[in-house]
Write the structure tokens for this entry.
Amino acid sequence: MGLPVLPLREGKVPFGNCRTCTGNACGGRPNMKTPGPCMCRRPCHAWAAATKDPAVIDSPGWQTAWRQAWALGYHPGGVGRTVVDLDNADAIDWARQALPPTRIMLTTRGEHWIYQGTMRSVNGVREGVDIKSLMSYARWLGPGTGPLTALPDTVRALAADKPTAVQPAPPRVAAAVPAGGGPCPHRTPAYLERGIAMAEQSITDAHSAIHHTVYRVFLAVLSRHGRCGCLTETHVHLLFAAAYAKGESLRHCQTAWSNARTALGM
């Protein structure tokens, strides 16, 4: 259908950077508006990895990710579209009254209303309403029904005075990783990766008490995955990035991590 696609891992989150690209050490991707000619043939760089190129989609690095993928994502802004993500019945009722009809895709919790046109991506423009367009990704659940309608000013107005959903990645910071030596619960690497992905999603899904949520998630990760030595600085960076995207400062992240280690005697 001409959509730029990317695989999503459990929790509807993109695959993390490979070792070469961790922390944008590669310089980023041109379509991320960052310097550097990175042409990594793996689904790196989140939404910016989305592609329509069959040679990339069928490459060995991507095939590995497809076999592990939990869902299919796409970049709406890459094909001139905007998705109004309605997460509950109240949000759907509001859209039916306030927005012009357009193509609708049913989701697990609500509906995606898809418009022709692009804008910046913003979360939480109303209760249960997110906007996904440029520099963002949406989950693909089918072609939807109904003709595409031009993006109305009503939707653009929702983003006025709202912070963008896309925040710069935090710089890598020093965070002490437990040395390990205890019993290891990780029979396969995927077990740890799933645990980190679920932890990231728990932080991302939080709508209140962000400080408490971040600390609770850090505590859970360290309790389950931090005693054997398998936890790495890259895993910690992913957790910090999720908290940073919710508005937590790096100092608060470091404090929460340190407090969680202290509480567990690490």
Notes: The mean pLDDT is 84. The two ends are 51 Å apart (CA to CA).
